[in-house]
Amino acid sequence: MRAGRLATTDEKEIKQILDKTGELVKNVSMNATPAETGMMVYGIVREVTGVQDPFKAIKEQHIKETKAIYPELEKLVANSDDKLLTAIKIAIAGNIIDLGVSRAFDIVSDVENILKQDFAIFDYTAFKKQLEKTKSILYIGDNVGESVFDKILIKELKKPVKFAVRAIPIINDVTWEDAIASGLDEVAELIDSGCESPGIILDQSTPEFLELFNTTDLVISKGQGNFEGLSDCNRQVFFLLKSKCPIIANHLGIEDNSIILKEHKI
């Protein structure tokens, strides 16, 4: 409904979106991931309205807002005792910018709160150990605005990084265009995952992405959508996210709104 109203003011089209979504819900598998369901639902919005990126103006505003505080975030990293850990926390703080979950957030205050917050899952030692022996990194992006925060962490990793984006606009997930607007092309090589979903679906990714995913020394996955899609994959992945719903929190055995640096082992 929210995406539909961003895309059109035509009440007949809104009704059509709801009708088609209702039909979809009747038939969707209980085993489908949120990314798979989201891809189908937002596909209906595009099909009915003809608008490919309903959230475009909001994404542009988020990039503008996060770029405005970027210099302050860089100072926080530079002045910290553990620059890598601070950069990780800032990257996770950016994960609050999720239009698929909530529109009510204050970027600056949420960043400040998360920097003071303890991790519910904290596989930092394993992360540093893997980073030390890593020659290449695949960094799977999540939301626009958050992507500006990712730039800070990528710079602090001090290794060659390939940053994966969505193939087409889906909610506020970062596309190639969004990544360039965020300045990520300055610190990483951009690659298209091939996914048209709000989260990676491996069997819908490009062969090039799958090759990277399977062979890269270190994979960093940002956000809840990517966690939902990759949490049972068959390789080591480090997940950086904030838990944003009771289902994920219960699955991980933590409280909701927790921050997480989790190593997924084979």
From TrEMBL:
This is DUF89 family protein. Gene3D superfamilies: Uncharacterised protein PF01937, DUF89, domain 2 (1.10.285.20), Uncharacterised protein PF01937, DUF89, domain 3 (3.40.50.10880). Transmembrane segments: none annotated. Residues 7-256 form the Damage-control phosphatase ARMT1-like metal-binding domain. SUPFAM superfamilies: AF1104-like. Pfam families: ARMT1-like_dom. InterPro entries: ARMT-1-like_metal-bd_sf, ARMT1-like_metal-bd, PH1575-like.
